Amino acid sequence: MTLIKSRNIRIRLKSFDSSLLNNLCDKILEVTRIKNSNPTYIFGPIPMPKQIRRYCVLTSPHVNKDAREHFEIRTHKKIIDVHNLTETTLKDLKLLEIAAGVEVEVVNLLN
Length: 111
What we know:
Alpha-Beta Plaits, 4-stranded antiparallel sheet
């Protein structure tokens, strides 16, 4: 068995699709709550502000300068803090299936 340096982790999730993000949050909460003999404290999912990037594109670059189209990309973000983490919970989190459109970052908290 490997030793966990810090028993506290922060999981940062990013996605363009909010439904994929919510489904993964539900899976993470289910895994961390069910298979624990020690009490694991979960803070989250904490929604972070959406990052909205807007683009303006000319539809007719030569004649009609006023004819434009607007596009936007919304990036949804959430954070989950897990405290008092056990090795079995960590193994279960590693085995989770993550959808293709979700970016996951796990950081050790040194508290």
